[in-house]
Design goal:
This protein is α+β, with helices and mostly antiparallel strands and 456 residues long. 27% of the residues lie in helices and 20% in strands. A five-stranded antiparallel β-sheet has the order 1-2-5-4-13. It has a five-stranded antiparallel β-sheet with strand order 3-14-15-12-11. Strands 6-7-8-9-10 form a five-stranded mixed β-sheet, covered by helices on one side. A hairpin with a 2-residue loop joins strand 1 and strand 2. Helix 1 packs antiparallel against helix 8 and helix 10 packs parallel to helix 11. The radius of gyration is 22 Å and the shape is globular. The N terminus and C terminus are likely disordered.
Amino acid sequence: MSGSSGQIKGWCPGALRPMRSGDGLIVRVRLTGGDLIPDRAAALAEAARRFGNGLVDLTSRANLQMRGVSDETLQPLLDRLAELSLLDASAAAEQVRNVIASPLAGLDPSAPIDIQPLIRALELRLIGNERFHFLPAKFGFLLDGGGVLPLDGVEADIALRAEVDGHFRLEAGGETLGWVRAEEALEAALGVAERFLALRQPDESRMRDVVGRLLNEAQQPSPPSGEGGPTKSGRMGCGPLATSFPVGVLLADHTPSPVASQRHLPHLVKKAAAPSRLAGPHPAGFFTAAAPFGRLDAGQLEGLAAIAARHGATLRLTPWRSILLAPLAVDVTTQVSSLGLVVDPGDPRLAIAACPGSPSCLSGEAPAQADAARLAPVLAGFVERGASVHVSGCAKGCARRAPASITLVGQGGRYGIAFDADSKAPSETEPMSLGELMAFLTKRLTENSFKSSDHV
């Protein structure tokens, strides 16, 4: 939103490459598939308390990051992460492991493809080929096994999304390239990454910058019969790259059926309309502990680890900044609620994205998370009408890249507001104090001037 001086950075923190912020160093721990066994979770909670300020953020890539780490405590923290087998061999290897996966991988019998073996296999391929280390810092992959918790709406530069007939749909920059057999999926995804590296210009860092040229390349005349492009079975596949993709991506001979295009069979357990609003028990046998705005403290993480261990469950981080306990056959609502975490899917805070803001963030011009919590009772009325809300400490918009129904952006301790916009849109009002903003929103709601059909 214009008027903010926040500078947009082009990289994400890691453990070996932490980021300095207003409350110290941010150290991100990248978890394979978001999987965190209870013992490791308890150890990370202790480390966050001992080496940082005890605050832990959940990220939209299903990782966690510790805040408030000092220059003096960084090396002891890295030593502890190494002991827990959570430290990569190099910063390059750490950075390239940008893989989002279905949080119930290996635990969801309704998933058409079990992607769990593919997650680590993809990471190892990315780490093992130094050419992939040249991928931009935020360039990411997605493995979606479908089932109860599909990753619909979760974006990635290259995505493999399971169909109910056992094939993957291959996407690049949000565009469907074709379909691949499960055994050919990693080769296909990595082949697209190779083409990205070959086609990108120095100022292009995401697949969406290149996908147009990639598709144009695919429209070139098909090779003569018998030259290039067949699958392992010798048959040509379908999709725009089936006959002319130049790097040997193997697309399976496949015509998606109407059922397959729906991705989910009707007899499956009904999934939530918006996974970001999941909280509490689910009939499929897992429990969602939602952290307000993706923030929890060491005690809460420690408590979740104890609950999971007590019931033989593991912890799975999600791209919706929540933690699943699975598999779980008992209701642990009271236990999780006692930790101060969200267990009610109707809690309005689940529809609000908010970054830490000031003083935790050096770019923050307003205390976004603290103000979002104060605004939640007022915003609840909008949320009930289907609104999404983004409260950002500056124009960077780290908590949410997509437009929101209501976007509030910090400007010198006040907030600008825009509707159906992202954080970089111009404010529709003069910057307001928190009190003025609450009065403005209350009046807007009372006058019934907000329609969910206009702001979704």
